[in-house]
Amino acid sequence: MGKKIVIALGGNALGNNLPEQMVAVKTTAKAIVDLVEDGNEVVVVHGNGPQVGVINNAMGEFASEHKEDPTPLSVCVAMSQAYIGYDIQNALREEFLNRGGKVPPVVTVVTQVRVDKDDPAFQNPTKPIGRFMTKEEAESEAQKRGWNIKEDAGRGYRRVVASPKPKEIVELSAIKAMSDAGELVICCGGGGIPVVSEGKHLAGAAAVIDKDFAAALLAESLEADMLIILTAVEKVAIRYGKPDQEWLTDLSVEEAQKYADQGEFAPGSMLPKVQAAIQFASAKKGNEAMITLLEKAREALQGKTGTKITKK
Ligand code: ADP
Ligand code: MG
Questions:
Q1: Would you call 242 a catalytic residue per the annotation?
Q2: Which intervals of the chain form a coiled coil (predicted)?
Q3: I need a labelling partner for 305 at 20 to 30 A (CA). Which of 201, 250, 267, 288 fits?
Q4: How are strands ordered across the β-sheet holding 4-9?
C-alpha cells in the first residue's frame, strides 16, 4: 500500500548554479517519480542555499547601482521558490513522459512559514548569506541597514541572518487539498518564506528557515507516514570520517538523541537532519523518518538502505 511521504531535497539535488541545476533536477526527478510510480503520495520540499545567494547578490548589485534599497531576503526566498519549482516541475513532466505514463498535475506553492518574533535565534544570527565584503564596507552596511555581519572563514565579511524554527505553514490547507486530490506538490522551498505576525499582516523576516525543520513540520501537519531526507550520504554515521566510523541503519528516537547529544552529527549539516527526523518520528507512533542518498530513495523505502529513525 502506498504511503504519504514528504521528501526534503538537499543541495546535491539542485547543484550550485543555473546550468548545474538543469542537470541535477533530472536525477532528482527520477528519484521522485520512482516513489510516485510505487504508489506513494509525495510532497516535495527543497533547499535553496546557493540559489537564494545568487538572487540576493544580483538584487544587491542592482540596488546599489540604482541607489535603491536592497530587496528583502523574504522576497529573494520567494523568487528562489518559483525558479526552483519551475525547474523541478519541468524535469518531473519530462521524466513522467520518458516512462510512458500519464503526467500527474504538478504544482509549486509559494509558501510562507510563520516564525516566532521572540525566537531566540533572532538574538544570535548564524547563517551567512550574500556577497563577501571588506571590513569597512561590511561595517558601513551594518550601520546603514541594521545588518549583522561576521567574518567568514578568512574569505571576508558577510551578512549573517537568524535561522528561527518554523511554527506554522501558512498555505497548509491549499497544499493539503492539492495533495489529497493526487497532485504532486512542491512547497516550503528553502524552508519557506519566513514571516512574523504583525496583527493581520504577515511581515517578511530577514531570516532563513532550515528546510529540514520545515519539512518535518510539513510532514507532521499533513499527517504523513514518512519523512525522507535526501542528501549526499547513504546513511548517517557515528564517528563520521574517522577510521572506526560506523554506519547506522535503524535507530530509535532515544538512540538518535543520545548520539546527537554526544556531538556525533555536525551542526549545520547532519545535526538538523537528525533533529528533524527525531521531531517527526516522535510526533506519532508509526511515523518513520529516513535519511539517505538522493539516488537511493526507492531502495531505502524498500528497507534496503538508509538510516531509519522511529519511535520504538
Ligand atoms: P544538504 O545540502 O543535503 O542539506 P548537508 O551538506 O547540509 O546536505 O549535510 C549532509 C552532509 O553532512 C553529508 O554529506 C556529510 O558530509 C555530513 N555529515 C556530517 N556529519 C555526519 C554524520 N555523522 N554522518 C553522515 N554524514 C555526516
Ligand atoms: Mg544543508
A1: no
A2: none
A3: 267
A4: 106-108, 184-186, 41-46, 4-9, 226-231, 288-293, 307-310, 250-252
Contact, 218 vs 187, CB < 8 A?
yes
Measured between alpha carbons, how far is residue 183 from residues 108, 109, 118, 170, 244 in Å?
Answer: 10, 12, 36, 19, 45
Q: Read off the C-alpha cell for 266.
A: 555536525
- Give 229 Cα–ligand 1 centroid separation in angstroms: 11
Find out whether the beta carbon of 245 lies less than 6 Å from any atom of ligand 1.
no
Nearest to 179 by CA among 218, 229, 227: 218
Contact 114, 166 (CB under 8 A): yes
Cell reading at 238: 557515528
pLDDT mean over 15-27: 92
0.85 exceeded by pTM: yes
Summarize pLDDT for 126-173 with one digit per residue, the tens: 888 877 889 999 999 899 888 899 988 788 998 899 999 999 999 999
Please count the other Cβ atoms lying within 10 Å of the Cβ belonging to residue 74: 19
Domains and CATH numbers, the chain: 225-311 (3.40.1160.10)
Q: Tell me, yes or no, if 11 is annotated catalytic.
A: yes
Ligand 1, atom 26, residue with closest C-alpha: 236
**Ligand number nearest to the C-alpha of 12:** 1
182 among known catalytic residues: no
